Amino acid sequence: MDPELDNIISILNPKTTPVSSTQARFRIRNSKPSPNNIRSRQSHSLPPQKSQVQVKTEKSIDVKLDEEEEELPDSVIQNINEFYKVEDEEFKKTVTTGKTGAPILWMRHFTKREENDIKNETGVATWIKGKRFLVFRPYIDPMNIQPKLNLETNYFFRMMHSDVKLIRYTLEDNGFIEAPPNKNNWTIMWHGGPIKMNVYQALSKYQKVNHFPRSYEITRKDLMYKNLAKMQVLYGTKAYDFVPKTFIVPQDAGQLEFEMANEDTVWIVKPSASSQGKGIFLATKFSEIPKSGHVISQYIDNPLLIQGLKFDLRVYIAITCFNPLRIYIYKDGLVRFATQKYQGTGKGSRFMYLTNYSVNKFSTNFVENTNALEDGKGSKWSHTALRKLFKQEGIDDTKIWEKIKDIAIKTILSIEGIVFSACEMHLPYRNNCIELLGFDILIDDNLNPWLLEVNLSPSLNCDAPIDQKIKGELIADLFTLAGVVPTDQRNGGDKANENKALNYAAYMEQFMTLSNKKKNKKAGWNFDNKPYSSESLKDIDSREEKGIIKETNYEYKRRGGFERIFPSEISINYKNFFERERPYNALLCNKFGKIHRKGQGGSAVIYRKPPRNPSKTQIE
Ligand code: ADP
């Protein structure tokens, strides 16, 4: 056992005595389970795909099995055994109950990769090839129990203009405490709204904040439509056909009046800078439209219905860097249902045409989720449950998810130029920020996803067990992805990295002096929309480039439940949507890209809206 490593683990597990890197995979409460009982519990009283094992004494070990697996894999059993160093103790499934009286503990996912990590002792709370980052565990205790603070770890966080309980508890549970107001030695800042530029300018290398400068350009409704309209003008409406036709008043009032007079359509009217369904209504006449401060979108009147109810998806997207651009999608999210049967446009109440939780929780028909493990019941589901239903119904949803990834990338590309410049101007280090965005997606009855809006600070409230399960893991994985370095790596860290000369300005200078041909080659662009073969990459050997690839690979290893969607095998297909060619993006495109063959799928293929299907999809 490495003493340094143990130190990190004890920081990550302040309530427990230090354990080894392998052992840190498990969530410990107080005592000792036995492998035999893990087996029997799994086969008798739990649903086949999930197993939650706890001991009478409130010690728990939470394990998730792959669906097909009958028993825990030997590697896991062995580790559990070693961990607890006991042979037999009676297992009992105990359930911690939250406000709703529901079980709120769940099991941490074991992917094949994690299993291998455990086997090879390279799992969480360890360092990756000599480069160490903190790995966060999700907060799984009831939200009405505050984590015990560990005052000795020297990890600080700061909350500004918000106090999100889940963020606070996750950080405190992982050994962080709130920084005193007069101290600037925090590692993570969670900021309620856009961050002032002077805050960015004062950041140290090790500090992480949760917004990029000017990311609000896609999260304010009017700005998002303005930016997407710009992309439609530049690249064609076909490429950006995932947003309904939208106008902003007062500036587009004339055009809107014309449209409303000539088209027999219903419009949905939303305040430009509002959320949670506040102030939204449907309109058919121009006289009903407020004079200013609103966006007016064509109402999508053919939503896919489940048991007659409209629903939308909350999709979580993380951006870790704009230079090079790196975007991730989270493996799970929420499905939010309306609470009154859909009867077509204009009829029925807000409970019929709005899917916001904040609206529908007041409906008498609202059904609260009471058990995180029953994620396909009630008015809020998980994506996993929805996908299971799609499968049962014979709906191939792969295309839907590919399109959602495409929507996320193209939407972010609509502000890439703006944010890139703001980062260049205000960020001392390229990796100071991480952004978690909540994309609201509506699926119509042709199985086409539509982007409704993007949220800057997606709700992290944990009103129901399903919220805490999904958001708890999401936040732990987000902080892990952020790449927080242990305290002992901070000092001198800046200097060391300066020496590595990840200096974009110098790189650009070198790049600009190359001839056009060489420049294109170096940047990885060619005009056939194909990346260069790996052979050509031999030419690229500068330290910056190696550094970028290394940093990208390390980050990839920390991805947890995130899937990287940019750069990816097909990211070359997005090169035309960039305001400018960026060498670092080109480098990664070449590194991770595969030549895209026409007609072979891939999310960047511009998709045409399928014609209206006369037999609409409906799920009973
Ligand atoms: P808010 O930020 O207030 O939640 P949204 O843009 O997310 O505003 O809209 C709220 C809800 O209204 C959505 O969750 C969705 O159910 C419905 N909605 C919004 N835009 C449309 C649209 N163009 N067509 C159909 N329904 C929509």
Automatic annotation (TrEMBL):
Keywords, in A-Z order: ATP-binding, Ligase, Nucleotide-binding
Any one of the GO BP annotations: microtubule cytoskeleton organization
Entry-linked InterPro entries: TTL/TTLL_fam
GO molecular function: ATP binding; tubulin binding; tubulin-glutamic acid ligase activity
Catalytic activity: L-glutamyl-[protein] + L-glutamate + ATP = gamma-L-glutamyl-L-glutamyl-[protein] + ADP + phosphate + H(+)
Pfam name, any one: TTL
PANTHER family: TUBULIN POLYGLUTAMYLASE, TUBULIN POLYGLUTAMYLASE TTLL5
Protein name: Tubulin--tyrosine ligase-like protein 5
Organism: Blepharisma stoltei
